[in-house]
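Late entry, written up from scratch paper. The run itself happened at the end of the previous shift, but nothing got recorded in the book at the time, so transcribing now.
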Amino acid sequence: MREINLRGLDLNLLPVLEALLQERHVSRAAERLEMSQPAVSRALARLRQSLADPLLVRTAQGYDLSSRAQTIQVELSRLLQQLDHLVQPPAFDPATDNSLIRLTGLDLELAIYFPGLVKHLRRLAPQLRLETVRQEQDSFSMLDRDEVHFSLSGLQPASAENSLHRRVIDTMPLLCVMAEDHPLVEQPLTPVSYAAAAHGLVSITGRGPGSMDKVLAQLGLKRQVMLRLSSFMSVADFCEDTDLVFTLPQRLAERVVYKRRLCLRELPEVLQPPPVSFYLYWHSRYHQDPRMQWIREQLFAALGYS
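Output as recorded:
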């Protein structure tokens, strides 16, 4: 039996084949396809050669289908519909879509930025399902492994950077968080007094110094980190009624002190590092996906970005 090389089969001939099998006549097929009769005749000749079958055979009443053509006709319409679906841009209707969208980030970051998106989506896409996934030390590897669709993060990827896309969703300075009766509330906050305080540190990776340690080192100063936490959500509990000072991005700091016996103080200008940026990250596999494009737009709209 002769094997058919699909790489040598012109898929453009398949709609011509469908018309020929349905019309069983070259001229009528040509009219239906708005092609010339010679062009359809040439297409039939190529199909006969490729499929090693006459397809249309003469009878006393005109043309009829060969046995092979009868078998092909049963499957051809369905196949063409599948091919059309394959090459058409994927459709997305927010009003009816019921996909599951997974997002990761640190607890407080999600608490600040995610509720606005959820409220926005509940109005526009009521069937869409959302899920926050516990972040590992490296949320970028979660994107790379397709465990989540989006990541909210203020960190920079150490790997898979070429396969990731991102957009800034917020930029802010750092602020000091301390108990409302902390001595530094009333005293001048200088680089020396800041370095001398007892510090708390939220460490995502659990390793290495914080960004402020590097800033202090440039001034020949060093601080003592007396408490290292893995979560922003517990900062208020550990900071309230203690001598600990936490240095946090502004939006997170404001959320931490809300309705707590805590206060905020600005860092001395000489200690203020460049503003901290938070990003929405996504993987290249979803960069052109209409659903994910729409969700990104809704997040930016909910945050007030164009």
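The CA atoms of residues 194 and 219 lie 12 Å apart.
(Scratch paper discarded after transcription.)
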